[in-house]
Amino acid sequence: MSSENKKKPNKILSVLWIILLGIVFGVCAGVTYTGIAIVSNKLVVPAVVGETPSQTTFTPGPSDPIKPNDKENDFHAKIPEEQEEIIEEVEDIVMSNEGYTVAEVAENCMPAIVSINVVGDYDYNGYKYEGQSAGSGIIVGQSDTELLIATNYHVVENNKTISINFCDGTDAPATVKGKKVSMDLAVVAVDLSELNDSTLGSIKIAIIGNSDETKVGEGVVAIGNALGYGQSVTAGVVSALDREIITESGEPGNFIQTDAAINPGNSGGALLNMKGELIGINSDKLFGNAVEGMGYAIPINEADPIIRELMNKQQLTELPEDQQSYFGISAVEINSTLYTNEGAVIPKGVYISEVVPGGTADMAGLMRGDIITEFEGDSIVSMAEFKKYLASYAKGSKVHITYERYNGTEYEEFTIEVTLQGK
User: Which among 71, 89, 100, 205 has most CB atoms closer than 10 A?
Assistant: First the structure.
């Protein structure tokens, strides 16, 4: 047999082998495709956690085509009720995370912001005069008798009268309920009897956010009574966090820095995130408008505990003279920024120039040169304020006094309990 005849059977076997491989490949591919399709169908409707996935599937046929807005035939209508609740919950989280536009934040939050107009005594180079100033405030609470508004202390400092202007144009008188000078914070109260139902229905209480969750680059909105012209809105981003600044009181503080414009009159207004939550209280007092694009706000996580404390302060009521207490000091007030020869900031408060033997101060161990800064946790910056407290607390009352004493390098703060003596 020739060599050609021997090669023919080998060629036939090769062809048969190729055909067999093709059949095997086709079968494998078909099985794989079918498996993927089955798994895909099972994964279309996620199972509720803790339950066995349903084996029932909906396959539209010629007799039951899916129609727009057809609830009976719509595939999504077949999702179990429990799963619908999970989906809606996730959607709420996703939507809330996206935040609002600047216009939406302004519209939603403007009813919680007020304008504050103050008539007070001011000092210019030793010349005292009566003048007017303006600032902003944030509605932070309401009791059975009062509407409570947070602002900067310097907005209501040295006030004779305070007037609050609400979002509907209504004006109402207010009084200072409490203040913390070192943090430049104050709470003013408006008697609810001064407000009609229409005004009460138009205002809102601000939603408190979490300034610790704020990130650099995050969008923010500032609302306040810029230049006393009424509420205005500016927007920007968080430029820096925990920016340490020495305040006018000489106390270091950490602030939120933003490029949103904070102009005179914005002090006490709101710095809001894009969810409309209050994350800071604006302060123009830190640097004024000397530097463009650098505004500062007190982080709400630092301000909130103090605001809550001030909100619960009791209004002072003057007692009959024979019931009033006596402290036994001669003093002068420090209400402007002064420095020692060593460069230490002298705290604002009541400077004791003389201690009367046997009086309250003498019995408590206070000395000449001490500066009283707080009475029962409330900041004291003038003799008139200090006398008002003494006239409102009966002799024999136990109160906490905070004072600062110079050690030759810096002032140290002390808080003591004293028993008030009578006159």
Answer: 100
Residue 70 appears among annotated catalytic residues: no
CA–CA distance, 78 with 45 (Å, rounded to integer): 9
Output the pLDDT for position 40. Answer: 45
Does residue 210 carry a pLDDT above 70?
yes
Q: Contact, 164 vs 148, CB < 8 A? A: no
Active-site residue, selected from the candidate residues 211, 267, 283, 325? 267
Tokens of 214: 């704020």
Query: Which of 184, 284, 304, 370 does the annotation list as catalytic?
Result: 184
Segment 363-395, tens digit of pLDDT: 999 999 999 999 998 888 888 889 989 999 999
Distances (CA, A) of 144 to 110, 191, 288, 332: 23, 10, 37, 39
198 lies in the same domain as 266:
no
Which of 115, 133, 136, 154 is an active site residue?
154
Residue 284 has what pLDDT? Answer: 73
Structural domain including 143 reads: 107-202
3-state secondary structure of 147: strand
pLDDT tens, position by position, 63-103: 444 344 444 444 344 556 666 666 565 555 444 445 789 99
Confidence of residue 6 (pLDDT cuts 50, 70, 90): very low
In a domain, 235, yes or no: yes
Tell me the H-state helices in 45-177: 81-98, 102-109, 153-156
Active-site annotation holds for 378: no
* CATH assignment of the domain containing 342: 2.30.42.10
Contact 41/53 with Cβ under 8 angstroms? no
266 in the same domain as 180: no
Domain contains 52: no
155 and 244 assigned to the same domain: no
288 located within any domain: yes
> Tens digit of pLDDT for each residue in 129-143?
788 888 999 999 999
341 and 376 co-located in one domain = yes
Q: Indicate if the pLDDT at residue 13 is higher than 70.
A: no
* Backbone torsions φ then ψ of 19, nearest 5 degrees: -65, -40
What is the Cα Rg of the chain in Å?
A: 36
Q: Residue 176 forms beta bridges with which residues?
A: 188
Q: What is the distance in angstroms between the CA of the first residue and the CA of the last residue of the chain?
A: 144
Cβ-in-10-Å burial (0-12, 13-18, 19+) of 376 comes to middle
Within-domain flag for 8: no
pTM for this entry:
0.67
Q: Enter the tokens of residue 110.
A: 């403007």
Active site residue 267: yes
Distance of alpha carbon 402 from alpha carbon 413, whole angstroms: 7
**What local confidence, expressed as pLDDT, does residue 64 receive?**
42
